[in-house]
Description:
It is a single chain. This protein has about 350 residues and is mostly helical. Helix content is about 75%, strand content about 0%. The protein contains 14 helices and no strands. α5 (about 110-150) runs parallel beside α9 (about 215-245) and α9 runs antiparallel to α12. The protein is globular, with a radius of gyration of 27 Å.
Amino acid sequence: MRQFATLLLREVAEWRLLLIVVGVLFVLGLAGSAVGINRLAHEVMKESTEVKVKLHRDHDNQAVDEKEPAGDHDVWADDDWEFEDDEWLSPREFMNFGWPAHYFLQGREGLLLYGWAHMLRGALAAINLSMIFLALFYLVDSLYKERSDRSTLFYRSLPVSDNILLLSKLTVGTAGFLMLSYLLGVVWVLFSQLVFPAEFSRLLEGNGFSPSQLALWDLVGDWFVFHLLQFLWLLPYALYLLFISAIVRSRPLLIALGAPFLLALLLRYSIGTVEPIAVLLSNFDALGDILMGEWRGGPPQAIHPGETVELFGGFGGYIFQVRTLISILAAAGLAIGTRLAYRRNFSTS
């Protein structure tokens, strides 16, 4: 166990520059988002005030001069404010009023909470996708890099088994990056709630809404379960990248991505379909479908004052599917192949 922990720390130390860059970009993103959302709030509230002043001025001018043309764009008829309960953005509203000030004038402040929830969900998904993208580069380069600089010779001389060495790299490339994605996502959501603009808070609370309606503790649990699901369903792809890293002698990333592409072309022109490749990559589509399926949004008018708003539904039920078992079995086969390839290529290191 101590050997495994030491190897994990060694991996973190070797990739510390990447972690520093990610940390710096994340902090800059937090600061930029705080400044940006508060400036946006200031501009929106300023626009709302200007629209209100303009509205009163136009009605006063119309009272003084009854000959004001009825078609003037600055004169808003009473029926322009009408909207159906199931319609949250009509063409008339979009054309006649400024956005988003007219929503606030009509008492639709719930739309602000609706947009805020979607922003948080989108940011979580973006952070998660970015970490998976970085994990791709780590996994495909982890074993190849050590063979190319001959550091494998040193580690193979230590009293450490190949299994522990390979497991340390797999753990960092899967659980490590997913845990980083989870932590960054949670920090992002909590920080965003802390810097929620005071102007928006007063506007929401004046109409019974509040940013505290978002079920953040449920989000923390749901988002962790989704990362666990990702770990299980993406494990075969991680081991495939590790296998490529163990067998190739140059350009591991090109080979890892190019091999499925060439196989798809071969299948397309030989049997007329790429369905076998689509099946092999179906876990990615399944995760995307699940994420969007549990994306709790609904129409803006579905958000009511004081009602708890969940960002995501539950992901636990998806773990206990046949897809999970197939993914684990495929990962086990690729793990055996990776270990054999690693030992066979030792003499060429």
